[in-house]
Each structure stands twice: as C-alpha cells, then as structure tokens.
Design a protein that fits this description.
Length: about 450
C-alpha cells in the first residue's frame, strides 16, 4: 500500500518507445537527462551525481553522450568513431579503454553498458529508469498535479525494485515539495515523508540528498528552524557544491533573522550557477521581505521569464507588484491560479490583493467560495488569515493564524518577516503566537555542534 493517497485521479502516459525496436527512448525527453543518481546535461557537457558535479574526461563524456542518445542500440566500432570521436581514427583498443573507463566511473551503474567483443557496445537502460525519468519530469513542473503524477511513477518503481532506495528517496522529495507548495496539510504529509525517507535511508545510508530532506522536514513539519539551519550548514560545509542545500539554508537563515548570512549564501550559490532555478524562487522572496522592492522586482521578473509555468515564480512576482501598488499584481495572481488551479491558497492571495485595492465585493465572494469548499479542498490557513486581515477582520485573522499554527503551515515560519503581515505584527496577540512558533532559540548564530 502506498504511504500517501492523492485525492486526484492519475492516469500515467505510456513510456515512449522507438517504433522500430519497441525500446523506450530516453533521449527524446527535453532538458537534462537523468539515470540512476546521475543527471547529464548534454547542452553544456556536464554530469552531476546527487546534485553535485561529477567530472568526466571530455572524451569519456562524448562516449556517454553518444550512448545516451542511442539507448538500446548495438553500436559498432565504426559508428562509435563517427559519433564519439567525430570520425577521427583511433584504435579499437583506445575505444575499449575509454568505454571501460566510463563503466568504472559509473560504478554499479556501469553494468548498464554492455560490451560484446567483436560486435560493439550498447546502453541498456531498465524500464524502471524510464519511469524514474518520467517521474522527475513531472516533479520539475512544480505543480500539484505534476507532483502527484511523479508519486505514481516513483511508487511503480518502488514496487518493481523492492527495497531499492532511489525511488523512495524521490518519493520523500515529492512529499516535501507538496508540503512546501501548500497543497496538502503538513501533518498529513509528514507520515508519508517519514515512511519513504526511512526506506531510502535503510537502502542508501546518509546521502547528501537524504540529509537535505531530513533538514527540510525539520523546517516544514516540526518547525525546528534552528536545528534545520544547523543541519544544512553542516551539509554545505561537507558538500560546498550542493546548490540546493545552500539555497535552502539561505531561506531558513532568513526566516531565523539572519539576513546577511542568507544573502551571503545566495551570492555563493550564484557564483556557481546564477541561473539555478531554486535561486530564482527564493531570492525574490528574501529581497521582498527585506524591503528591497526594486531588486526584488528585477529578480522576480527574471524568474518569470526563465520559468513562466512555475506557479511560485508568478506568485513571487505578483507579491512584489502588490507591495509596490502596481495594478498588474492581480493579473499575475490570476496567471498563477490558471497554472495551478488545484492549490486553493493562490485564490486567497488573489482575493487579498483585490481587497487591498478596494474590490471588496469580489474578495468577499472568493472568500465565501473558499469557505464553502474548505472541507473538500485544503487551503492554507496562513493565507486565509492575510485575506481576513485585508478585509478588516482582525479577530478572524488571528483565529486563522491559530489554525495555521495547529496545522503546521509552512508559511507560519515567514510570519515575522513577511511584508504582508506587517499590520498583524502590531497587534499584542502576535507576541504570544510568535513565542509559540519560535519556542526554541531561532535567532543569532546557528546552533553549535
């Protein structure tokens, strides 16, 4: 039985296959190609393992690229020369040595490269690998439906591979993403995450990605912000090139009141890859909450240009425009809602924007719809609180904040720094709520060892 049952009907598309051979075709998927723990970006000739760059000799990479582009096919000596050596004449021994170097570099995954002496070489990727690739493609959509489809793929891989840890690791990551998106209650997701993470850890040990997931679960599910920051700082020290961990550390540093350290982490990440998508999602939010509206708008606008179908990029841009009093904010909220119609809090954010602009009647109509559907469709209470505050209903806003606290809304961590909650923080009741949210020491230096 799966640990988590989405409230959404999922129909997975068939794995694409070559019409002549019937073999699944990995290379036809757009974007970087993933197999096992590796991600290969053919456009920039780089390979990564568990998010960290995995260097290859240029000629070894060319062999890998040609094999990936021709999965399941037997490639003889002459074709390998044309495809991986650009037609240059080298000995059969050189080709064999290069292929063996690639197999050794890939470790246990090197067995996927078959060598048939006198005939040639082939890359035989298991069916489960195509399901993994499909699941990762769905995850990259950053939407509720995409994440649920990803879960379907990863659960099928887990069923086929049994105790193998990689599908469980991907499942754990998908549950975290659903929680961070605010698509389901955190308490509901915590059980699903814990089960998947336990399975992955039993199989894989403490990989960098599993350590990252555990730290994010402390932040998301337990509101142990200082402990999460400490775990991430240890991970970043151990694996400096792990950009996802560094950007997540910047986010948690900021909500813990360490703005300077957060910006330092982002600058370090940008030196490695200024276009890394997660930077485009986190940096505008930090700049906005820091009051740097011009810089936040520039950053958010660039993120929308790079990731136009990412709901969080649209929301960030809408929030910046809203803070600046720009009438274009409502249009950005509507676009985000069109991309992600299943996440109800986006509708609440749009209604808050309308209420602030005097469109009270429309905002109230949206509020009524959200309340009517609340039993059937989860809506993050934090955003409902901001909507109630915009409508002048302070007492109801605090009742929603209490609900957000009880439901462990991932947004409650932002309460003290979110520019949208400025008026709420002036109420004497805020200090009591703050003390409970930050019951452990959360400011100052990160926890010491």
């Amino acid at each position: 039985m799966p640990y988590f049952q989405p409230d959404l009907e999922i129909e997975l598309p068939p794995v694409p296959a070559d019409a002549s051979s019937g073999r699944p075709i990995l290379a036809k998927y757009p974007g970087p190609i993933s197999f096992g723990p590796f991600t290969v970006d053919l456009a920039i000739a780089r390979m990564f393992r568990d998010g960290v760059e995995f260097p290859l000799r240029p000629q070894v990479f060319r062999v890998l690229r040609f094999l990936i582009q021709n999965p399941g096919r037997l490639i003889d000596y002459e074709e390998m020369l044309r495809g991986a050596w650009a037609g240059a004449r080298v000995s059969r021994h050189t080709v064999a040595v290069t292929v063996n170097e690639l197999r050794n570099t890939l470790g246990e995954y090197g067995a996927w490269i078959s060598i048939r002496p006198g005939y040639g070489y082939s890359l035989e990727i298991p069916e489960t690998e195509h399901l993994m690739r499909l699941g990762q493609h769905f995850r990259s959509q950053q939407t509720r439906a995409g994440l649920y489809n990803a879960i379907g793929c990863f659960e099928r891989v887990a069923a086929l591979e049994g105790a193998g840890g990689r599908a469980w690791e991907e499942l754990a990551g998908a549950y975290l993403q659903i929680g961070l998106l605010g698509a389901r209650p955190a308490r509901e997701l915590q059980k699903a995450f814990s089960g998947a993470h336990k399975q992955a850890s039993a199989a894989n040990g403490g990989t960098p990605r599993l350590r990252l997931q555990q730290a994010l679960s402390l932040f998301l599910f337990e509101h142990s912000f200082a402990e999460a920051a400490y775990e991430l700082s240890q991970l970043v020290d151990a694996v400096p090139a792990f950009l996802e961990a560094r950007v997540c550390l910047a986010m948690i540093d900021f909500v813990c009141g360490r703005t300077g350290e957060a910006l330092d982490e982002l600058r370090t990440a940008e030196k490695t890859d200024v276009l890394y998508p997660l930077i485009g999602y986190v940096k505008p939010r930090i700049l906005l909450c820091s009051g740097e509206l011009t810089a936040a708008e520039t950053c958010a606008k660039q993120a929308v240009a790079l990731h136009p179908n990412a709901p969080i990029a649209r929301i960030n841009y809408a929030d910046v425009l809203d803070a600046r009093g720009d009438d274009g904010a409502a249009a950005q909220y509507r676009t985000a809602r069109a991309i992600e119609p299943e996440v109800a809090w986006i509708r609440a954010a749009e209604a808050r924007c309308l209420a602030r602009r005097g469109e009270t009647k429309t905002a109230l109509e949206i509020l009524e719809q959200l309340e009517t559907n609340r039993d059937a469709q989860y809506v993050d209470a934090y955003h409902m609180a901001l909507l109630q505050e915009a409508l002048g209903r302070r007492d109801t806003a605090f009742r929603e904040l209490e609900r957000a606290y009880e439901e462990r809304s991932p947004m409650i961590a932002w309460l003290e720094c979110d520019n949208k909650s400025d008026s709420i923080r002036k109420d004497p009741r805020f200090m009591d709520l703050r003390e409970r949210v930050w019951s452990a020491p959360q400011s100052g230096s990160r926890l010491s060892a």
